[in-house]
Specification:
Strand order of the largest sheet: 2-1-3-4-5-6
Strand content: 15-25%
Structural class: alpha/beta
Number of strands: 12
Number of domains: 2
Largest sheet: 6 strands, parallel
CATH class of the largest domain: Alpha Beta
CATH topology of the largest domain: Rossmann fold
CATH superfamily of the largest domain: Glycogen Phosphorylase B
Length: 349
Amino acid sequence: MKVAFLVVGKEMPSTRFRVLQYLPFLEAKGARWRIFFYQQALSLTALKKPRRLLRYIRALGSGLTHDLVFLQKPGFVVHRWIYLRLLFALGRRVIFDFDDAIFIDRLGGGPQPRAMMKKLEYILRRSRVVIAGNPVLAEYAGAFNPRVEIIPTPVDCERYSPAPNRPEAQPLTIGWMGTAANLGYMARLRPVISRILMETGARFLIVSDHFQKPSGLDLNFGPRIEFRRWQESRELDDLRQFDIGLMPLDDDPYTRGKCGYKLLLCMAVAVPVVASPVGINSRIVEEGINGFLAATEEEWLDKLLRLCHDGNLRRRMGAANREKVIREYSLPAAAREWIALLERTAAER
């Protein structure tokens, strides 16, 4: 089996966790693959440099010659859209994978512009199989394609493991990790963060790919709120510094399509979590067992204070989190399911 992967970029979470971490398993099965990133191989800037131009041509050719094309978030710039239409017109076997509510305008909360929706619906209809990261996304895709598989984003629990013999942190660290586009959700917690900082000795560690600090997080608490730029090389070390992990969200059509992966990473390193009861979060977090769900400022404050003041509760919830991720989000189990799906699709006429 030969697979061409057309994906966004190697540091994008959907690429890292829904493609790249599967590749060693795919290689062990004897499959051959090539991976092309839109930002490099399928960008118009690739046409300006000979080396990138060669990569661009290889990307185009792989989609036409490999047994299977695995497609993520293509964007709908004209040259890329023409290429996708060509793939479908020639009957290429395409699997479309998505893990966000890309059919929703995240700012307005309504559907994307009609022109974009028509292109997305075309891809959904023409793909041999659609892989969705959660039931909300699967329900949407199912309106256009009867072959929809739900494969949650798995966690490599051998890599993402608790820190060995970690001493009690001083001060206690409440952490959030995510892309800059989601920093606004943390800013909504400004009153809660301020109260926690005033009433406890805790600190906040906020890790993101780049920063334009939201005004809501411009609090005068000096080093007790640390903003740290995300780096893949230190991602695990940053997670292991958390004593409590956060995932606040607004409740809207876009956020209901999120897959809760940052929660799962915190859970894998045995960190208790507090999250908004939105979408898949309500399935991941078992109230009072491995964390808490909080919908109001009062609930956020109460549940964070409980965790701040009770080390035994943090340890008990953290252990339950680690067990849950190993049991329900194991990378080897998901890889077997994912590869079997690719093999079945590649064998079709």
